[in-house]
Design brief:
Number of strands: 0
Radius of gyration: 19 Å
Number of helices: 10
Number of domains: 2
Structural class: mainly alpha
CATH superfamily of the largest domain: Tetracycline Repressor, domain 2
Strand content: under 5%
Order of helices and strands: HHHHHHHHHH
Distance between the termini: 53 Å
CATH topology of the largest domain: Tetracycline Repressor, domain 2
Length: 192
């Protein structure tokens, strides 16, 4: 790894932490540079501005997610369970996604990787529905949204899951997520 690559990697890691805590508006370039042990000007050299750096951070995490969590339209319960575990292991991604939505708008249109991935997933679900492998009660885009939302429901940014205790056993949560998704995609005869 070159020195420039190492600096970029440190900047991305420091920016990930800063943006996941404070969002774009609250993040401070000075704190990012200090945490990365880099000159503040290097942020502008490598990323032009704070917004571009935020997008680079967010896109890097999205690309990692897309590469590490395999999608199967015919096994959506397992996909939802794997996605839940990824979010559990990478809580900053959901916080970054929340900040993106608040401060940048719809990331489907802004981040090409998400738009392509979601379009491909919706098409795969629709094909599986047409082949009878996935229940067709709900449109494919609704199914995908339910799968994604169910997997992300226990994310650190979801106020509905905040409690005074450590929370439920992640294994039990994963089983519940898979059962909920199975109920959506398996059809009324096999959902029980």
């Amino acid at each position: 790894m070159t020195r420039a690559d190492a600096t970029r990697a440190r900047l991305l890691e420091a920016a990930t932490e800063e943006f996941s805590r404070y969002g774009i508006a609250g993040a401070r370039v000075d704190r990012i540079a200090a945490a990365a042990q880099a000159n503040k000007n290097l942020i502008y050299v490598h990323y032009t501005n704070k917004e571009t750096l935020f997008r680079a951070v967010f896109e890097a995490h999205v690309v990692r997610l897309l590469g590490e969590v395999p999608f199967s339209a015919t096994d959506l319960p397992a996909y939802a369970g794997q996605l839940y575990e990824f979010f559990l292991d990478n809580p900053r991604l959901l916080r970054l996604a929340g900040w993106f939505r608040l401060e940048q708008g719809d990331y489907d249109e802004a981040v090409a990787a998400i738009a392509r991935s979601n379009a491909d997933k919706v098409a795969a679900i629709a094909r599986a529905q047409a082949d009878g492998r996935v229940d067709g009660r709900y449109p494919a885009d609704v199914v995908l949204t339910l799968v994604l939302a169910t997997a992300a429901a226990w994310g650190s940014g979801n106020p509905a899951t905040v409690s005074t205790y450590d929370g439920p056993d992640p294994k039990i949560v994963r089983l519940a997520i898979e059962a909920a998704v199975r109920g959506v995609v398996a059809g009324k005869d096999s959902a029980a």
